[in-house]
Each structure stands twice: as structure tokens, then as C-alpha cells.
Model the fold of this input.
Amino acid sequence: MRVISLGQVQLLYVDKDLICDFNICAAHFFIFFLGRQALFCLFYVLAIESCSGSLDFWPFNINKETAPSVKVIPETDGNFIHIKHFDESSLQVHIDSMNRFLEPYIRTAYKDNIFNCKFTRPPPFNSFCDFNVKDLDRCSPDTDFGFRRESPCLLFTLSEVSNWTPIVLSESDIQNNTNSFSTVPENVNASIIQAERDNSIETYIWFTCEGDTAADKEFIGTVSYYPYNGFPTYYFPFKNVKGHVSPIVAVHFERPMRGVVITIICKAWANNIPLNEEKGLGYAKIHLLMD
Done:
């Protein structure tokens, strides 16, 4: 743009190139603005779909696990669970945490999706297997999970991996195992062998909790499981049905030693749940202290 003087008259002259440059800049800005808005909308939709579980492919699937991991409740930093029997507020923190976890199980919503499963009756399409909290028995909310009786319970479940189906252990799997960390405990070993000999249709992802060292095994005391020492396979695969809840194994430590930190290793047993101590796969390590 320049000014041309003709005597006392001044004319404002605008170069055509400048007008052209301005139009190009405006067009670029408009395209950039529209592109930014389009990308924002796209990622917003993808985020909503991913959170709802509708996107099962990487990288939009939040859960990128290929096999379930073991989760322990109550959740604490480093799975260190300190039970102070003379500190009511401390006990209540753990009890409240476990009650919050169980809230979706004591539900009124999605009743039409609930199905009473059995090994001969898997859930139909758009339904999920019910889990009755009363089956937790001595580890139910009615007992405050044993925390006030120096006989605590911990709840365990498996992370939800879409369309993952367990491959249960067989007697031959036990015989071929050479890894000491993944050596099946005797009680599970006996259950597997007996089930095969009886041609039983009841199959489980077995679950066990043991002391880490010889001293821990002594300190831990008697351990009981409710409702079973495993997860029934009819709960799998996870299909992302609204209202779905995962099966629970409650582990009751009937009389653990007080005043010492007990390290407990809890493992899920299936052929396609890798047990790897170095990578922390297939098990949870808990440190329990009661005083």
C-alpha cells in the first residue's frame, strides 16, 4: 500500500499483490481454524468412546493388557496394609474402602442385564453373571471384613480384559512346569487332578495366597477362601455389558501373627495368565502388619 500525491490530492493505492497476500493468509487461517476444530471434535469423540470401552483396538483401548492382572482391595500405597486395632479411625478407612468397592455389586441399576450363571448356563448376549456379596460369608460387609476381630479379609479380583478367555490348568501342565515361582500349590494340584478324573465341568482360574518366605508361611496362619479358591470360568470373557462386575475371591487370614510385617504372595492360576516374578505378572504382593 502506498500514497500517491497529485497536487493537493492524495490517493491511496493498494497493491494487487498485497490484496492477494491478504486473501491467502485469510484462507490459511480459516483452513487452520476449521482443521483445529475438526481435530478437537475427533479426539473428543474418541476419548468418550474409549472410556466407554467401545474401542477395543490400540491405541484407543485404555486397557492394553493381554491377560488379567491381580487387584487387591483395599487399595493402599505399595499394597502395605497396616491394621491398628486400637485406632478406630484407621480401621474405618480400610472398611470404608472395601465397602465402596462393593457398591456396584449391591445394585439396583441394570437388573435386566443380570443373569444367574452356572457352568452349564453361561450368560446370554448383553447379560452378565451375577455375583452375590452374601457368598463372601465371613468376609462380607456385615462382618466388617473381620478387621475388628483381628481376623482380616482381603478381596481380590482380576482386571477386565475384553474378550480374554481363560485356558485352565491341566494335570499335564503341572507335570511339565519347571519354574519354582509358578509351581502349583498342593491343594490346587489335587483339585485339578480330581476334577480331570471326575470329568468335572466346573473349571476355575485357581487362586492362592501364601507367605513369601518360610517365616511368612509360619506367621500367616490358616487361610480360607470365599466363595471359592478361584474364579469360575463362566464369568469370562469380559464383554463390556453395562453394569458388569468382576468375580471376587475373598481371602480370610484367620489368625495372622501380630507385630510383624508378613509378606504374602497371591497368584491367579491359568495357562494364559503368565506368572513372572521379575515383571510382576499374574500375582500381587501384599505386606500385612497387625498391631
Notes: Residues 16-52 form the longest helix (37 residues). The chain has a mean pLDDT of 82. Helices lie at 16-52, 88-102, 171-176, 186-197, 214-220.
